[in-house]
């Protein structure tokens, strides 16, 4: 649910930017999407490992008759089967969010086209190879864990994305200086490429 909610919020933010609505509303909604991203990631890991059921289902199982208990067990089994897709859905939502913003600002001539090409190539290679190895939580090499799989790396990536895309919104809507936006884009792209290199290193070693 968190996955689809944040995708919907991101798409609405894109609309607000295009019509040049109040930029701070767009930034606040973008921040909400990133919070949902954190919730989404937590649920993806937690549910995949536990296959948990809600408290109401648990109470029905404990207090209900045999038919109810059987229904709850089946629901839990189905939840466990679906939970394995959680980490992949999380990545899909991440890519939709990131690609949407890069494409938007490329379309608005705020970001050069070659930057979008670099991002697409980076993600295509990294996601393709990582699909063979699993998710970042399963990384074995120290380099990959530090630069890609660690909580600090994920947090820094989200902070840089928030700062960069938020400033680009202000640049387009309110006319903030482009030089700052260019610097933020450069820093973010370098960091994204380095994290991609860590993913490839993990899969090729």
Secondary structure: elements and pairs:
Layout (H helix, E strand, L loop, with lengths): L1 H17 L4 H28 L4 H9 L2 H18 L2 H22 L5 H21 L8 H8 L1 H24 L3 H27 L1
Helix pairs in contact: 1-2, 1-5, 2-4, 2-5, 2-8, 3-4, 5-6, 6-9, 7-8, 7-9, 8-9
| CATH-defined fold name | Four Helix Bundle (Hemerythrin (Met), subunit A)
Number of domains: 1
Structural class: mainly alpha
Count every helix, treating DSSP H or I runs of 4 or more residues as helices: 9
Q: Termini distance?
A: 36 Å
Q: Which ranges are low-confidence, i.e. pLDDT below 50, for 5 or more consecutive residues?
A: 47-63
- CATH architect. name: Up-down Bundle
Helix content estimate: over 70%
Sheet of most strands: none
CATH class descriptor name: Mainly Alpha
Task: Label the overall shape.
Answer: globular
Mean pLDDT: 79
Helix and strand pattern: HHHHHHHHH
Describe the structure in brief:
The chain has a single domain (2-51, 85-204), classed as Four Helix Bundle (Hemerythrin (Met), subunit A) (Up-down Bundle). The protein contains 9 helices and no strands.
Would you mind describing this structure in some detail?
The chain has 205 residues and is an all-alpha fold. It has a single domain, classed as Four Helix Bundle (Hemerythrin (Met), subunit A) (Up-down Bundle), CATH 1.20.120. The chain has helices at 2-18, 23-50, 55-63, 66-83, 86-107, 113-133, 142-149, 151-174, 178-204. The longest helix has 28 residues, at 23-50. The two termini are 36 Å apart.
